[in-house]
UniProtKB/TrEMBL annotation:
Coiled coil: none
Any GO molecular function: transmembrane transporter activity
GO cellular component: plasma membrane
Pfam families for the chain: MFS_1
Organism encoding this protein: Methylobacterium terricola
Presence of the UniProt keyword Transmembrane in the record: yes
Principal location class: membrane
PROSITE patterns: MFS
Listed name of the protein: Multidrug effflux MFS transporter
Topology in the lipid bilayer: Multi-pass membrane protein
Amino acid sequence: MASSARGEATPSAAETPTREVPGRDPAAAAWAGPRFVEFVALMALMMGLTAVTIDSFLPAFPAIQHDFAVQDPNRLQLLVYVYMLGFGTAQLLYGPISDGTGRRPALIAGVAVYLAGTVLAMLAPSFEMLLLARAIQGIGGAAGRVLAVAIVRDRYEGRDMARVMSFCMMVFLIVPILAPSLGGAVLFAGSWRLIFGLMLALALVTLAWFGWRLPETLHPAFRRPVSARAIGSGIAVTVRTRAALGYATALGLTTGCIMGYVGSAQAIFDTGLYHLGALFPVAFALIAGAMGLATLINARLVRRLGMRRLAHAGTLGLFLVACLQLALMLAFAGHPPLWLFIATLAACQFLMSFAMPNYNALAMEPLAAIAGTASSFIGFYTTLLAAFCGLLVGQSFDGSVTPLAIGYFCLSGLALAMVLWTERGQLFGSGGR
């Protein structure tokens, strides 16, 4: 088994089975599933479906408000919050269930729940029923997020795992930023209900592809009983593992930066500050492109340099650029030129994208024997932490970009502090990884 960060104890080889790692383990020849490129594409689709569902229908808010005669426009935000509530809490279930029954049954059940919620959303006769449908979607959608991470951990370890997670996280991070443009394009062709039709089609493709091509990845020796005691034990191990808790917290804090940005982006770029109008998606795409480029570079470098070095460099660089960004925003009294704001924000996102995929891999690395439960708890914890931090940043919008810059400065600083705590004050050590 791979060793954990900085002296954390992990199960010995005698306690846990050897994993089949493609390209390095002779036993990998027995693997009957998809090869690397197809495997990564399937995992990315599982995570990307979750991301599409979060905010692809945001452009439809006015139409939904009109169709259901919603008097208070702020109520429309509940369509996001109820989804995140279902998504966040349900993550606690899928991992432990999959640790007992296997990944395939848990994923198929989750997609079935998601499909039911999506159909209900397409046919919803009232706003209240649409809220219920979104909550059901969140409960089902959590399966893809949790089990994609668990399946990757089943198949890969160390730098190879970080490389796969880098590609998957690229999709998970970029899609929510581009999804409003996709939803707007679908809305242009017809009713807002067609956006849920798109979600339905993507879910059916995911289910068919997964069921046809991916065999069970959970080794029989890693199966655990599905019980409150076993779940509690797995969560306790995760929390006591310094690398898991520290890097998961850093992941939640940096994801909070993104959620704060997404929450206030429309007000900054369109209605409250720069008034870009139809060019709003262009600004989104420029920043998303920086994230995508960084994630691709990370995937190419991680096997050579190691996920710890790249994560630490990204974290330190993010904090330094966030300091510069805050100084510039204050110098312009919160109203900098558009090009300067986009440039500094894109630089932050670029550096962040070196840290986040590796955070996830480093958090999961010591927890092979409880990968499902660990993935569930880490997903639950990071989602709620990111949502809380993002809400604080987004709701602080005051007509300037200063609150966002302060948010990036504070959250990146806290993330750096967590990494230092995790590594006991030492950055850039290889630690075998």
